[in-house]
Structure formats: structure tokens, C-alpha cells
Amino acid sequence: MKPPHSSAMCLCPVALGLLGIGLLAQSQQPQSAQTHDQGADQHGNHAAHMEHRFDDAERWAKSFDDPARDAWQLPDRVVDALAIRSGQVVADVGAGTGYFTVRLARAAALKVFAVDIEPSMVAYVRKRAAREGIKNVVAVQATSDRTNLPEPVDLVLIVDTYHHIPRRVAYFTELRKLLKPSGRVAIVDFRKGAPEGPPEEFRFTPEQISEELGKAGFVLQKQLDFLPRQNFLVYQTRN
Question: How many domains does the chain have?
């Protein structure tokens, strides 16, 4: 995922609208990253977001969609855990090449918005959905501070993109306005100490993520611990 940077937003792989961030934090390339807003800033964000471009979708698809990723990303189990109901609308922010998008679309979702800030990723997902005969995917071009979602959604999934999002409290405050009353936000991002992912300074503890989202009007609904390398946190809006 990326950022609103993409499954590519700086999104190491993603950030939201959202950045639209890019998907898999290919942050094994720290020389291409820049640290911004070190420490908690005036918006209440902890430390940095990671800037990284994912502007060659065909090249990134080889790693984002590598079958070997399934062994630790456990995508089908992640989608099952989200318990998407028939008729619900989902946004995959930082969709990248559509690794999760196509799986969400094949679940019960009525519609899946594949959101990314990288034009090449948006075009790639659109072509992929057509090639695979998936008719309930809508590709959305995001900016670094807006997801540009065209309608309210029931669920936002952000995989490996949280660390790419700048001004996260402001970003999620705006995103909350695009959720239906019972809407949820699910964040999957690399744990500190995991064998792959972005540099340690671009990784956040569940407590740090919950603190930032709390300032944006969210509360933690559940924390799932079955992913070997990533945190998996699900939030809902505070009543």
C-alpha cells in the first residue's frame, strides 16, 4: 500500500484520502525516505510519515502481488476477520496494485473503492479489475490529504500505509465524515521489530495509533493478533 501516498502514498504502501497511500511499505530503501514532523506535532501526530513514490505499477506489482507475501500477510484471513456484510461499501486506501482490493470485491462487498494517490496505481487497478472480470471495483485518484471518496462507506481498510500519511489526526478527522453511522476503519501496519517493513522510526505501537485516532474521534473496537509482522486494529466512530 502506498500513501495517500500509495499502497503508494508515501504510503510505504499507502495513506489516505485519504492519502490513497500506497500499499506495501517497501521501506527497505530508507535512502528514499524523508522524515517529517518529528515528535508529536501541533496536530497531535506522532513523529514521522514516510515519503516514498510508487509510480511504476508494473514494477511494484512483482513484489506487492508476489504469492510469497500470502504466507505472512494472510489476506484471506484478514478479509474474513473484517466480517463484511452483503451490500456494504468498502474503501481500500492505499490500494496499490489491488492486492486486497480484488479480495474485498470477491467478498460480500457491494462496491470497493480502490483509493491511491499514484496515477499509475489507479490505472493499474482499473485495468486489473477489467481483466479479472470484477465489476464492483471503482478506482479513485486521491490526494495527500483527501481520499476523494465519492460516497459514504461502511469500512475503510488501510494496509501498510498508515506510516505514509502526513497530518494523520487531520486526515482521519476528515475521513470520519465519509463513514456511515456504523462505519469502521481497519489499520494493518508493521510492528516494531518485524523482519520487514519500514525503518523503526516509521513504525507505531497500537497505543500510538489509538491515541492519534482518538483525537480524530475514533475508539478501538478490537485488536487482532494473528498477523506475524503487523498490527491489525479496527476502530469505530465515537458516539
Answer: 1
Q: Residue 10 domain-assigned?
A: no
In this structure, is residue 67 part of a structural domain?
yes
Read off the pLDDT of residues 106-155 as tens digits, 9 standing for 90 and up: 997 899 999 999 999 999 999 999 999 999 999 999 998 899 999 999 99
Please report whether residue 57 resides in a domain.
Answer: yes
Nearest Cα neighbor of 158 from 215, 116, 207 is: 116
How many residues in the chain?
239
85-to-111, 170, 200, 239 alpha-carbon distances in Å: 11, 29, 36, 22
**What's the CATH number where 65 sits?**
3.40.50.150
- φ, ψ (nearest 5 deg) of residue 36: -125, 150
Query: What's the whole-model pTM score?
Result: 0.80
Measured N-to-C along each axis, helices 119-131 and 57-64 cross at an angle, to the nearest 10 degrees, of 70
Question: With the C-alpha atoms ordered 164, 165, 169, 175, is the resulting torsion angle positive or negative?
Answer: negative
Which tens digit of pLDDT belongs to each residue from 23-38?
333 333 333 333 333 3
Got the DSSP string for 162-194?
GGG-SSHHHHHHHHHTTEEEEEEEEEEEEPTT-
Is 198 among the domain residues?
Answer: yes
Enumerate long-range contacts of 122-129, CB under 8 Å, 24 or more apart.
Answer: 123/57, 124/57, 124/58, 124/61, 124/97, 124/98, 125/95, 125/96, 125/97, 125/98, 125/101, 128/97, 128/98, 128/102, 129/98, 129/101, 129/102, 129/105
Domain of 202, in residue numbers: 30-237
